[in-house]
Amino acid sequence: MKFVSPWGLALGNFSPQALPVRIANLRLRTKLLLSFVLLSAGLTCATLVVVRQSAQAQVQHQIEQDARNAILMFQVMEHEQQMALSHKADLLASLAYMRNGDPTAIEDASEDPWRSDDCNIFALADKKGKIVSLHSTNPVFPIPVAEEMLHRSLSSGNMSGWWINDKNVYQVVLQRFYDGPPAKGNLLGTVVVGRSMDARGASGFARISSSQILLRYGNNVVISTLSPIQEQESLRQLQEEPARQQVYLENERFYASSVDLTAGAHPTANLVILKSYKDAAAYLVRLNHLLLGLGLLAVLAGGTLVYLISHTFTRPLAALLEGVHALKEGDFTYPVEARGGDELAEVTRAFDGMRDTLQRNEVQREQLEEQLRQAQKMEALGRLAGGVAHDFNNLLTVIKGHSELLIDRMKPADSFYGSTQQIVKTADRAASLTRQLLAFSRMQVLEPKVLDLNALVADMSKLLRRLVREDIEFGFRLGDSLGRVKADPGQLEQVLLNLTVNASDAMPQGGKLTIETQKLKVNAAYAHERPPLKPGQYVQLVVTDTGHGMDAATKSRIFEPFFTTKESGKGTGLGLATVYGVVRQSGGFIWVESSPGNGARFEIYLPRAVEKEESDSYERTPGRTRRGSETILVVEDEDEVRSLASEFLGSAGYNVLTAKDGVEALEVSERLGSSIQLLLTDIVMPKMRGTELAQRLKVAFPRLRVVYMSGYLDQETCSGGMIEKAIFLQKPFSRDSLVRRIGEAFEAKTCAQPMPEKTLR
């Protein structure tokens, strides 16, 4: 059977190991109540202990003070009695002097009620100290004992003291009388006057001093207010420890304080005053009961108060907890109220703000995940487009090259001359499509220059105006002091051309098209709104139209190759894909803002360049076609392309050596390396890349010239910066373009630096 306490603890089947777990599972209100009860109980106990100790110390001090006051009272009474006895002794000494020491003086004095009412003993001694007359109210006080007491007092010079015999106790005063002036030779005798102290007098003094009296003489009790058993017990304890202050009699504790009545005499007489602790103990018990009651009352009142307070403050805390549980389940709208300005209200407001932040972060996370999926999709499409362009360029190289060879061997009047020219034109159109694919996948060959974007836009303005219909308002807003950018001017022209055509197509009923440039410093907040833009210094190119705009689904796919919203047969879907690839390959970023019916805004961010502008003209000057007799090593893994390049170079007068990969090229160079003057190599090949082959051959032959050819550049080649410093031949190539690149390589000045010799492998 289990008993459940009001705080939810099952007391039956109690397990000490389970106690921490059960306590941890308690509600906050219950924990507060338990904590306060334990704290109150602890403070109450501590207060009781402190107060009890203080009360005990105060009681002890009071008892000691009362004992000292009783001793002082006894000493005052002793002194007053001594003064009265001294006056009596003077009178008796005068009477004895007048009667010349006659013993009848004692008898007359003892019978006179005016002189003997406060006196219990009269004695007359001669000049030798022999008592000649003694009168006492107690007939058992012998003269020899009195003479002994007298001699003891006279020898010690004490004229007052205490005479004790058996149960008889007297306070006495001695007075000498002389025959003439006081001198030893004139001494006539000594008179003694005393007053007895009996049990009745001791009881009166004990009642006045609220104590018990014990007068002991030597090892015997003479007078006492105690019972016989208590007398013996107290005497035993005092004999065992003379300086003892605590005496225990029949389960009652006393404080012992004493005064010596016969100082220097033996045996000694002591008056012991015993102050009882009984009243003090009863007072402490009452005080303990009072404090315990007050403590219980304080605990109950405090518990009730804490319950009310905890109920008031934990109710909003419970609501906050419900909000936390709702947030855990994904509910961001659970109502949570924050009232007042206390800590709980601040926590509630902080939770509400945190919940809003989490909701925004959740939305941003979904957006970032969508952007990541989009980026991954674009990356996958780029790799696919690059791979397709690479293989397609090799095919187009063979088609276009052999078509040119056929044209060279045919006459214009031949029946197939026109068909062959059509093949060449179609191959050129196909090559244009592959270049756009390479631009999207960022694998095309760029010839970057440091240029002024305003100058380039101004040069393109006439061409762009001719492309825009008359029902479209076309305007330019060029910023001042843009700075320079480093990019391929031809590719930037293609970007402007594609964006202009795209904007015109988006405004079939006319509208407004604006091209803007400005310099811009992008901070972290601005970049966060336009991912994946990064903070930095940029030159911004903006193309804005007032066309029909795009929805979110269309905007997420506009940079995909072959995606278009135009009718079938209109457009290839590579215009914006080309823009995206050129901007990203140039190290820039592109951002699009658009919504249905509100037009579109394309923002292009190009990093500002720190180099100086290289040239004011962006037109390319074709190199001269030359013939030669040098030896050229052609390395290409595609047999048809390698054979075609060899035929083109051979027709131009060059000596040609061939290899299908880098390993075979190294073997050829080991046999005929000294005669090889130029290396024409594909970049992406099995077994060994063209760039690695060129580096190894340059180590062995520092004056060797190199021309690279490829259908595309992979990410490793583009990121290395190698193409910017080398002569590159883009596939598909014609005979003239191949021979022209070879001629440029031979005419270029050799800037090779000395390199350490290495063994060619």
Spans with pLDDT under 50 lasting ≥5 residues? 1-12, 616-624, 715-724, 750-761
Q: How many separate helices? A: 20
Helix percent reads 40-55%
Share of β-strand residues:
15-25%
Distance between the termini: 91 Å
Global geometry: rod-shaped
User: How many strand segments?
Assistant: 22
Characterize the biggest β-sheet: 7 strands, mixed
Instruction: Decide which structural class fits the backbone.
Output: alpha+beta
Name the descriptors.
20 helices; 19% strand; 7-stranded mixed β-sheet; 22 strands; 5-stranded antiparallel β-sheet; disordered N terminus; 49% helix
Structural overview:
It is a single chain. With 761 residues, the protein is an alpha+beta fold. 49% of the residues lie in helices and 19% in strands. The protein is built from 20 helices and 22 strands. It is rod-shaped and about 200 Å long.
